[in-house]
């Protein structure tokens, strides 16, 4: 029960007690008054009758009876009696009349005390008798009953008036006092503090003043909490270094874009593109340079990209930082041609923002892009991009890798876990095989056979080439096992075939000692075949991990095997390292060879590389030859072994 109801109930009970007490006291006072009046009436009448009977003329018994009867017949007395001195009744008039209109319960509840009054009758000094009178109380009962009814009506009326007043009071308190307090309390939770309010009821002035002070304190506290919440939201959704959205925010926005694109009743944005790029050398940069400088450099690079997006009028792009080295660019509603232009411009910006790392080369970026459309899911799209980044890292250049629909058919759609299961299963059950292709000279002579490791995930499916599964193997730290399996299969091939065999080895395999130890064991077991085995490495390794390449060259030379270098044109810094290693051949290729027919400088640079290699006894091959004109130039420079769509073999083998 509320305090207000308790207060009203207690006041009502108190008033009820007061009214009932007043009623009881009033009735009792009236009863006592009427009882006294009856007694006075009886006494006065007894004195008067006794005086009348004491007159000598009234000593006659007939006259006495007439006087008694006359007094009795007046109806004011219920008993008139005359007795002699000895107490013998001489004359008596008596009735039992009572007030018929007065309830018996009321007579029992408030009895009237109508006592008998007596007086002596004398004749001179001689007493001749005694009169006794009892007043008739019927009229007194009726008067008391009527008076009580009026008092009861007055009390009930007062109670009803109090009830009405209490009801109105409760309504007034609720509608005036409580509503005013409620309005002031509601104002406390508003965003902006309202003006100081004055109490409309004087009794509430203290309460309203306290509420005003509380409102001010609450508003100050709310502003402080809002500032903290905003700061926490920034920390949760924003990268502290670049100010870009973080991975959580980007993924949520990407999913929202996918849902918005497929929502019914809305204008659907039919797909778009997502581009991710990774700073491959961020760990080395942090080791060689101050952290503050690297943070400033990353901010400047991101600001440059945002300026480019604004200049190209790209609609609703979102640039985010996924983690320390990975960034993402969401291009909703962006068609493929425009997306390619954005990707190429971003590649140019990243290329221009490169800074030196260590000694000898600039930092590198890896980029991958894919599209999404109606019905796409965020998980598979991001997994496809992750796979594209692995391919870009393995390629060793800054070209944008397009992760298209063909990549969705590989285990990359299930992410790294699927790759890990597939590669580990293949290693356990020896589900690898070699795909071989002969390397031909221009006269059709087979120089040697080149092999690529293939992963077979199921008997009824096409095997996956190393260019697809080696990047995830690098991320999963399984690349050394894959390369060792490639060497084992190569030795098996040499045991059953004539000629030489070249096998590619990934640079990440050389980071640990496991690969070199296991390679030495394999070559020890098949030492007789080692002199026909060629291990081919990427030219970037001559600059980035020269010590590991030197250790590999030592193991290879110890068993009579050979070492080759591919993609020398993409890392000309490796030319200075050619004399430090016992190499058998180097390969030129890529855009360097493709643009040779239009670039005399490329021809001169190739001539310099050829001269250096020949002085060191290293053969030079060419790859990615686009046309007959480039083939003619290469022949003129003295290169007789080449491969590409523009190569024409004079005498097929």
Automatic annotation (TrEMBL):
The chain crosses the membrane at residues 151-173. This is Diguanylate cyclase. GO terms for cellular component: membrane. SUPFAM superfamilies: EAL domain-like, Nucleotide cyclase. PANTHER family: CYCLIC DI-GMP PHOSPHODIESTERASE PDEB (PTHR33121:SF23), CYCLIC DI-GMP PHOSPHODIESTERASE PDEF (PTHR33121). It comes from Achromobacter arsenitoxydans SY8. The keyword Membrane applies. GO terms for biological process: signal transduction. The keyword Transmembrane helix applies. Keywords: Membrane, Transmembrane, Transmembrane helix. Residues 178-223 form the HAMP domain. Residues 416-653 form the EAL domain. The lineage of its organism: Bacteria, Pseudomonadati, Pseudomonadota, Betaproteobacteria, Burkholderiales. One of its GO terms (molecular function) is cyclic-guanylate-specific phosphodiesterase activity. PROSITE patterns: EAL, GGDEF, HAMP.
């Amino acid at each position: 029960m509320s305090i207000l109801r308790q207060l009203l109930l207690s006041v009502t009970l108190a008033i009820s007690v007061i009214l009932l007490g007043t009623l009881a006291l009033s009735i009792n006072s009236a009863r006592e008054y009427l009882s006294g009046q009856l007694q006075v009436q009886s006494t006065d009448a007894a004195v008067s009758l006794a005086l009348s009977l004491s007159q000598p003329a009234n000593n006659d018994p007939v006259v006495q009876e007439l006087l008694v009867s006359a007094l009795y017949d007046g109806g004011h007395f219920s008993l008139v009696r005359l007795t002699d001195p000895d107490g013998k009744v001489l004359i008596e008039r008596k009735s039992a009349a009572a007030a018929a209109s007065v309830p018996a319960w009321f007579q029992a509840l408030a009895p009237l005390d109508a006592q008998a009054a007596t007086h002596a009758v004398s004749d001179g000094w001689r007493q001749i008798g005694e009169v006794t009178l009892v007043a008739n109380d019927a009229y007194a009962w009726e008067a008391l009953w009527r008076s009580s009814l009026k008092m009861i009506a007055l009390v009930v009326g007062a109670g009803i008036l109090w009830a009405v007043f209490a009801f109105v009071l409760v309504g007034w308190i609720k509608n005036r006092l409580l509503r005013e307090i409620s309005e002031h309390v509601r104002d406390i939770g508003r965003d902006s503090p309202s003006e100081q309010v004055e109490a409309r009821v004087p009794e509430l002035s203290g309460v309203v003043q306290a509420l005003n002070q509380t409102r001010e304190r609450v508003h100050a506290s709310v502003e402080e909490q809002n500032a903290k919440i905003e700061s926490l939201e920034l920390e949760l959704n924003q990268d502290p270094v670049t100010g870009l959205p973080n991975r959580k925010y980007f993924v949520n926005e990407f999913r929202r874009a996918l849902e918005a694109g497929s929502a019914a009743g809305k204008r659907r944005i039919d797909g778009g593109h997502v581009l991710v790029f990774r700073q491959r050398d961020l760990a080395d940069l942090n080791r060689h340079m101050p952290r503050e400088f690297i943070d400033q450099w990353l901010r400047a690079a991101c600001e440059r990209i945002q300026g480019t997006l604004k200049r190209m009028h790209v609609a609703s792009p979102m640039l985010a930082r996924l983690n320390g080295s990975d960034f993402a660019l969401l291009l909703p509603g962006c068609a493929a041609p425009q997306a390619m232009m954005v990707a190429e411009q971003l590649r140019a910006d990243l290329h221009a923002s490169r800074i030196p790392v260590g000694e000898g080369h600039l930092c590198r970026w890896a980029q991958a892009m894919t599209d999404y459309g109606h019905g796409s899911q965020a998980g598979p799209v991001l997994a496809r991009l992750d796979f594209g980044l692995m391919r870009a890292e393995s390629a060793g250049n800054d070209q944008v890798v397009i992760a298209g629909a063909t990549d969705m058919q590989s285990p990359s759609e299930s992410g790294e876990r699927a790759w890990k299961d597939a590669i580990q299963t293949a290693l356990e059950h020896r589900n690898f095989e070699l795909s071989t292709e002969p390397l031909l000279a221009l006269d059709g002579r087979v120089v040697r056979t080149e092999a690529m490791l293939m992963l077979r995930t199921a008997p009824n499916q096409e095997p996956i080439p190393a260019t697809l599964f080696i990047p995830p193997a690098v991320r999963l730290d399984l690349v050394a096992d894959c390369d060792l399996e490639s060497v084992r299969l190569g030795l098996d091939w040499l045991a059953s075939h004539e000629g030489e065999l070249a096998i590619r080895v990934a640079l990440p395999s050389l980071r640990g000692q496991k690969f070199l130890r296991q390679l030495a064991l394999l070559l020890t077991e098949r030492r007789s075949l080692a002199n026909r085995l060629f291990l081919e490495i990427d030219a970037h390794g001559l600059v980035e991990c020269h010590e590991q390449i030197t250790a590999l060259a030592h193991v290879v030379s110890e068993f009579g095997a050979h070492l080759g270098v591919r993609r020398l044109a993409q890392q000309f810094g490796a030319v200075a390292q050619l004399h430090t290693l016992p190499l058998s051949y180097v390969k030129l290729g890529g855009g360097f060879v493709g643009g040779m027919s239009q670039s005399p400088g490329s021809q001169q640079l190739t001539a310099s590389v050829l001269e250096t290699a020949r002085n060191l006894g290293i053969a030079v091959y060419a790859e990615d030859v686009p046309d007959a004109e480039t083939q003619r130039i290469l022949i003129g420079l003295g290169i007789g072994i080449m491969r590409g769509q523009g190569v024409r073999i004079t005498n097929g083998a």
